[in-house]
């Protein structure tokens, strides 16, 4: 889901890293993929075996499946397979299966199964074209760290957990990954972990049933304009005040209380999505001197 970032949202400030920390990170990482934190989104350069062209993909944990823009698929002459229903924000539409696609980033093989979906509205809201999304399927069965200071994605052999880290339960659902937060004192608000959302929080105040997750592939594609307010959000033991928050009367995705986006995730120095142990590890930004 693409949201316009407001001035109240922050991103991590670059900081130095001692040699021992750097060595430990490199030892524990199996591979690294650089990304660019731009427009509140995480951009990755990828290539396809079918073309020498470099493509722009977004890291989007909020998307239930990885996607190639339909116009990009047509341009590269990728043959669409069977149709499938895709659930977006307040709508459903048709995508087409693409299988056996060889996609790589920095020499790392990425998922081979994609949906061809029209990303024109999302792409038009960004400064550069969006050729595809790396969705939640890329993260399943892996331990992946998003280092927001170094702007690197690391596929880890084992998670790195510091004494100050926040560790939250991570629920894996057919339609996405959700974590618990507290909003304005309302505990147990299970929201979608969504690195494809540039804003801080999209919150649904209506009462929800956790079992309402629908089985369609869920992908938020549109730039959305909705009412805004400021809320107090607690993520583990970390408390954030005056958080710019989009307010929704109805569920964005069934059974979920909203979307936790990069506007808040960027308050942490790194995010480790450990789908093996079903936990989210958030490293706290150290105060600058």
Number of strands: 24
CATH architecture of the largest domain: Beta Barrel
- Series of secondary-structure elements, N-terminal to C-terminal: HEEEEEHEEEEEHEHEEEEEEEEEEEHEE
Structural class by helix and strand composition: mainly beta
* Mean of pLDDT: 83
How much helix is in the residues?
10-25%
| Low-pLDDT runs | 1-20, 208-222
| CATH secondary-structure class of the largest domain | Mainly Beta
By CATH, the topology of the largest domain is Cathepsin D, subunit A, domain 1
Main beta sheet, described? 11 strands, mixed
Shape: globular
- Strand-residue fraction? 35-45%
Describe this structure in words.
The chain is mainly beta. The protein folds into two domains: 138 residues, Beta Barrel (Cathepsin D, subunit A, domain 1), CATH 2.40.70.10; 119 residues, Acid Proteases (Cathepsin D, subunit A, domain 1, Beta Barrel), CATH 2.40.70.10. It contains five helices and 24 strands. Strands 2, 3, 4, 5, 6, 7, 8, 9, 10, 11 and 19 form an eleven-stranded mixed sheet that branches. Strands 1-13-12-23-24-14 form a six-stranded antiparallel sheet. The longest helix is centred in the N-terminal third of the chain and has 10 residues. The radius of gyration is 18 Å and the shape is globular. The N terminus is likely disordered.
Write the SSE topology:
Blueprint: H1 19-28, E1 29-34, E2 36-38, E3 41-48, E4 51-59, E5 67-69, H2 70-75, E6 83-88, E7 91-98, E8 103-105, E9 108-109, E10 114-117, H3 120-124, E11 132-134, H4 136-139, E12 143-147, E13 152-156, E14 166-169, E15 171-173, E16 176-183, E17 186-193, E18 201-204, E19 217-218, E20 228-235, E21 238-248, E22 258-260, H5 262-265, E23 268-274, E24 279-284
Parallel strand pairs: 4-11, 5-10, 6-19, 17-22, 18-21
Antiparallel strand pairs: 1-13, 2-3, 3-4, 3-8, 5-11, 6-7, 7-10, 8-9, 12-13, 12-23, 14-24, 15-16, 16-17, 16-20, 18-22, 20-21, 23-24
């Amino acid at each position: 889901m693409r949201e316009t970032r407001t001035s109240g949202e922050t991103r991590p400030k670059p900081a130095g890293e001692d040699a021992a920390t750097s060595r430990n990170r490199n030892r524990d990482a199996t591979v690294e993929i650089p990304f660019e934190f731009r427009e509140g989104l995480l951009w990755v350069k990828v290539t396809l075996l079918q073309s020498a062209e470099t493509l722009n993909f977004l890291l989007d944990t909020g998307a239930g499946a990885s996607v190639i823009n339909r116009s990009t698929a047509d341009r590269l002459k990728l043959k669409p397979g069977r149709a499938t229903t895709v659930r977006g924000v307040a709508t459903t539409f048709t995508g087409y299966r693409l299988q056996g696609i060889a996609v790589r980033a920095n020499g790392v093989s990425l998922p081979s199964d994609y949906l061809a979906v029209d990303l024109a509205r999302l792409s038009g809201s960004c400064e550069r074209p969006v050729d595809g999304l790396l969705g939640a399927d890329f993260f399943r069965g892996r331990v992946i760290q998003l280092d927001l200071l170094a702007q690197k994605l690391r596929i880890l052999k084992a998670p790195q957990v510091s004494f100050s880290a926040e560790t939250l339960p991570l629920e894996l659902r057919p339609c996405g990954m959700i974590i618990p937060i507290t909003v304005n004192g309302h505990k147990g608000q299970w929201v979608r972990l969504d690195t494809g959302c540039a804003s801080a929080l999209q919150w649904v105040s209506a009462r929800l049933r956790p079992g309402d997750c629908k089985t369609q592939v869920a992908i938020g594609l549109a730039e959305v304009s909705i009412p805004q307010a400021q809320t107090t959000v607690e993520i583990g033991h970390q408390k954030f005040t005056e958080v710019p928050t989009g307010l929704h009367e109805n569920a964005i995705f069934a059974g979920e209380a909203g979307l936790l986006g990069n506007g808040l995730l960027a308050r942490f120095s790194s995010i480790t999505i450990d789908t093996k142990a079903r936990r989210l590890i958030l490293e706290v930004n150290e105060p600058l001197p």
